[in-house]
Amino acid sequence: MQVTEALRSRFSCRAFLDRPVSLSVIREILDEARKAPSGGNLQPWQVHVVAGKALTGLVEDIRRRFVAAPVGEGTEYDIYPPHLAEPYRTRRFKTGMDLYRALGIAREDTEARQRQWQRNYEFFGAPVGLFFALDRALGPPQWSDVGMYILAVMLLARERGLHSCAQEAWAAWHGAVAAHIQLPASQMLFCGMAIGYGDESAPANAFRTERAPLDEFAVFHD
Ligand SMILES: Cc1cc2nc3c(=O)[nH]c(=O)nc-3n(C[C@H](O)[C@H](O)[C@H](O)COP(=O)(O)O)c2cc1C
Predict the structure, then answer these.
(1) How far apart are CA 59 and CA 220, in angstroms?
(2) C-beta 158 within 6 A of ligand 1
(3) CA-wise closest residue to 129 among 173, 91, 92
(4) Which one of 50, 62, 191, 221 has the fewest CB atoms closer than 10 angstroms to its CB?
(5) Where in the chain does DSSP place strands (E)?
């Protein structure tokens, strides 16, 4: 598979087939992704893989906690700035609306929207979950390095017929996740990722997000 095809065929997959993924494939992906660049070659990424009983135990724990606290524990970092300005606000809103429309969820149906949000904490049915963390002492440039590693994982997954969905939603349960994966206190959880064989016929996977045209953000100086 060409890189262009891997990039074009990637989307945030929110429904997975009940088909196992060998951990040796995940290992290979994470190993190949080490080639991702990082400023000063710091390689600040830390990855935890959850599958099998570890995944089931975590999902069940969060399901129990969710009943008492649907918004979670609160995040350790702002997923978005408190006042999201344009054009970001509209983009975020549209993405949410398009997802709920694909799922047939009405705008005012907060219960159904919450149920869909909760699917995050089941890794959308994926057989493997990843967690990405980094040392708390590191700053924004290193967070961006972790992002590059994450994209490498997503593209390598596509090459192997797998789909993925990055999940900042897990940041809302950072304490519970940290306890399950024994994350050292010196590290901060950035996000999770669901990974598996996508159910391409599922309504949750029936829409594609748009992108602003190139000339809106790229300036050529020559
Ligand atoms: C770091 C990161 C975290 C994300 N967190 C979530 C999440 O918690 N739940 C979710 O459903 N989608 C999540 N997404 C998916 C984005 O909504 C998605 O990438 C964006 O809308 C573009 O759509 P696409 O990935 O289908 O191209 C996340 C994406 C990234 C890059």
Answers:
(1) 47
(2) no
(3) 173
(4) 221
(5) 46-51, 128-135, 163-167, 187-196
138 and 42 Cβ atoms separated by less than 8 Å: yes
What residue segments make up the domains of the chain, in order of their start? 3-208
> Cα separation of 21 and 124, whole Å?
15
Task: Tell which CATH classification among 1.50.10.10, 3.40.109.10, 3.40.50.620, 3.90.550.10 matches the domain 3-208.
Answer: 3.40.109.10
Whether the CB-CB separation of 210 and 107 falls below 8 Å is answered with no
d(Cα 46, Cα 70) in Å, to the nearest integer? 27
Question: Would you give the distance in Å from CA 138 to the centre of its chain?
Answer: 21
Residue 191 Cβ contacting ligand 1 at under 6 Å: yes
Query: Which value, to the nearest 10 degrees, does the dihedral of the CA atoms of residues 48, 51, 52, 54 take?
Result: 30
Ligand 1 lined by 167 (C-beta under 6 Å) = yes
Ligand 1 mean position, distance from CA 108 (Å): 22
Ligand 1 lined by 142 (C-beta under 6 Å): no
Query: Mean pLDDT in runs of 10 for the chain (222 residues)?
Result: 97 97 98 98 98 98 93 95 96 94 92 94 98 98 98 98 98 98 98 97 95 98 96
